[in-house]
Amino acid sequence: MSAAIISALVMGAVLLHIPAAPLNRLALASHQRRTRIFTGVQLILVGLAVSAVLLSGHITTVVAMAVLILSVGWLVTQRRELNQSRRRRQLVALLLSHVVADLKAGTPIDQALFDVLRSGVIPESGVGAQLHSVIQVAAARAQAGGSGSTVLQDSGTTFPELAHLGQLWASAQQHGIPLGAILEQAQRRIDAQEQHHRSTSASLQGPQATAVILSLLPLAGIALGATMGAHPVEFLFGGGLGGLLLLSGVTLVSAGLCWSHLIITKARGGL
User: Fold this and answer.
1) Which pLDDT band, with edges at 50, 70 and 90, does 23 fall under?
2) Distance CA 54, CA 217 (A)
3) Residues 137-143: what's their mean pLDDT?
4) Which top-rank group of organisms is this from (predicted)?
């Protein structure tokens, strides 16, 4: 039994720790920072699982804890990625607002990009540091006579919005279209996405709270049973029928939380 417990815990920790392979240098740096942050949460969850297993010693508890760890890890990862995606859009919208203003004043695109970097409106930390690096390379490439739009398009793995801007930049150069007008439309599109995100987030606060409350009801039932002297904790962690009920309950609650998250994310339009 001890070997099975250790194997299950190690497998759960490894599955939670395996990241998606980054596709470029900027994505690698961002990925390494995310991994360090998430490792602390992972260790706490694994520690709780180890404590529960050592107290019970039943395989159903091992599987239930593995399901819980993987579900919480997935939800935390999804939430973090959504927040970072929104932060990227906000920074790109801020970048566009300054670039469009300079382009309307007759400033070349490479100089407009350098002006934004020198102004300090783009933070040089976190997601802003990645954006700062991409814009600096694109501006230098354009100033040297190369294709700055290609740099933006190549950053699509980390910044999908910049890849779209790179395509607009290349199209404007190819067809002789004023770049300022095109980028202004792109800025309005990102602003509309942010407005949609704010409005849907406000309207979805109720369903989100309902999902959390429903997921906590089993704990309330366990607490009520304990006050009545039914000893539900010993029953659930004692293996046999109680262990099967624990496993099925954890699986259903975890599936419900993950499914609710997917529904709410889809209602936001994936934002």
Assistant:
1) very low
2) 26
3) 86
4) Bacteria
Tokens of 129: 């540091």
Cβ proximity of 60 and 68 under 8 Å: no
Rounded distance, CA 84 to CA 134, Å? 17
Do residues 247 and 67 touch, judged by C-beta distance below 8 A? yes
CA distances from 114 to 94, 103, 133, 173, 179 (A): 14, 12, 11, 19, 16
d(C-alpha 156, C-alpha 137), whole Å: 14
Residue found under tokens 């919005």: 161
For each of the domains in the chain, give its residue range(s) and CATH number, in order of start. Answer: 91-188 (1.20.81)
Structure tokens at 181: 């007008």
Q: Provide the pLDDT confidence category of residue 6 given band limits of 50, 70 and 90.
A: very low
Q: Picking from 8-17, 34-43, 70-79, 172-181, which range would have the lowest pLDDT averaged per residue?
A: 8-17
Count CB-CB contacts under 10 A for residue 243. Answer: 21
Tell me if the pTM is above 0.85: no
R_g of the chain, CA atoms, integer Å: 25
Say which amino acid occupies 123. Answer: P
At which residue do the structure tokens 């990102």 appear? Answer: 190
